[in-house]
Design brief:
- This protein is α/β, with parallel strands linked by helices and 397 residues long.
- The protein is 25% helix and 24% strand.
- It is built from 10 helices and 21 strands.
- The strands form 6 sheets. Strands 11-15-10-5-8-9-16 form a 7-stranded parallel sheet, with helices on both faces. Strands 18-17-19-20-21 form a 5-stranded parallel sheet.
Length: 397
């Protein structure tokens, strides 16, 4: 709904100005003028003593949905290296493209990263839309949004997928607003409705207590961000080729409102939970931060890494970079040890797809045992040393 001032009836009494809860009405001479801040609440209509303001139906121009074709994947890269989430999205994008019956395309932005286009073809992209410019070397919201939005406007993809990374979570909403479409964030499952050919996007809702499936029937493109580590990676086919489409890139003064002066990388050890084959995770059941030293010994023996539940992170026992769960990292290692972790649904959402889940907990009724392949009821400070002792008996290959 919108509101409209009838010029022949307005007397300039200013009652609408004084009663507007959003300060969206101003006076030009003796005429009330509705500004951009108007929400259509109708308060001004009710207080106007002269009937000079009326509610009107906004005319909305419907999009021609038939003009949109193709599945696009944002090929996130950093320092010229393709992020693994892009490979995962290409794997999932291929399934969606096959179900819809359309092309799988990748969108690549950067400066002199031509070799990544060849890599994207090998991972299954039929087309790569490539924006190459010095302004795109480092990610900035304005530059990437402008380039990709203009490409979407010209080529009209039906589905756009981004990784739920720091970059994807910034870029996705900006694109959705400019495209006048919706965005479903942190999806864990994507499917195509066989009847409508629209995408069904599933994500945790209400604190992870239920899963919601969201559709976008009236707008295009349909946009989703997907957590790293959730989808199966695309299979690489060496030598595979596709069509390279070079995008026109031009920036005017003021298009990019921020400038990257320096990139300072953390001096601490980098955590790569998504690439780890073995993860040894600890929760509040550790009882103390020193418990992670015990877990580290087991992780070193397996060549894996430690991780943590949100409770352990909130307690200040370990950095947030190690957090697994709905508000942390989603992982899918070959082996996942859950040590002193009760198994709250928010944590389970981030590790339930692991190959083998081993749970160690003193509480035999802990929910974690419901999803564990191997459950050990006992004190982890006794169980882990016993496991290490047995592993030491196994000759190294």
């Amino acid at each position: 709904m919108a509101v409209n001032v009838l010029k022949d009836k307005c007397k300039g009494c200013t009652k609408c100005v004084k009663n507007c809860p959003f300060s969206a009405i101003t006076m030009e001479g003796k005429l009330a003028v509705i500004g951009a801040g108007c929400t259509g609440c109708g308060q001004c209509v009710e207080v106007c003593p002269f009937g000079a303001i009326e509610k009107t139906e906004e005319e909305k121009k419907e999009k021609d949905l038939s003009a949109y074709h193709g599945v696009w994947v944002f090929a996130e890269q950093r320092d010229g290296k393709l992020m693994q989430v892009a490979v995962e999205l290409l794997g999932e994008g291929r399934k969606l493209a096959n179900a819809v019956g359309c092309e799988l395309c990748a969108v690549l932005c950067g400066d002199g990263v031509d070799e990544l286009a060849d890599e994207l073809f090998e991972y299954g992209a039929d087309k790569v839309y490539y924006a190459n410019a010095p302004e795109l070397k480092q990610y900035t919201t304005d530059a990437y949004t402008k380039v990709i939005y203009e490409a979407i406007t010209v080529y009209k993809p039906e589905i756009v997928l981004l990784g739920a990374t720091h970059i994807g979570r910034d870029l996705g909403p900006c694109l959705a607003v400019k495209c006048d479409t919706g965005l479903t964030a942190d999806c864990t499952k994507l499917e195509i409705n066989p009847e409508t050919k629209g995408i069904m996007q599933t994500r945790p809702a209400f604190g992870g207590n239920l899963m919601a499936t969201i559709v976008c029937p009236n707008h295009r493109p349909q946009m989703s961000t997907v957590r790293p580590g959730v989808m199966e990676k695309a299979e690489k086919i060496p030598g595979r080729r596709g069509e390279l489409v070079k995008l026109d890139v031009a920036f005017a003064a003021g298009d990019i409102r921020t400038k990257v002066l320096e990139v300072v990388k953390s001096a601490k050890e980098m955590v790569s939970l998504t690439d780890a084959d073995v993860i040894i995770a600890g929760g509040m059941g550790l009882g103390k931060p020193e418990g992670f030293e015990v877990l580290q010994k087991l992780a070193d023996r397996f060549g894996g890494t430690v991780a943590a539940s949100r409770a352990a992170v909130d307690a200040g026992w370990i950095d947030h970079a190690y957090q697994v769960g709905q508000t942390g990292t989603t992982v899918k290692p070959k082996i996942y040890f859950a040590c002193g972790i009760s198994g709250a649904i928010q944590h389970v959402a981030g590790m339930q797809n692991s190959g083998l889940i081993v749970a160690i907990n003193t509480n035999e009724n802990a929910p974690i045992f419901d999803i564990a392949d191997i459950g050990i009821v006992g004190d982890l400070y006794k169980v882990i040393p016993a496991i290490l002792e047995e592993l030491d008996k196994v000759p190294e290959k």
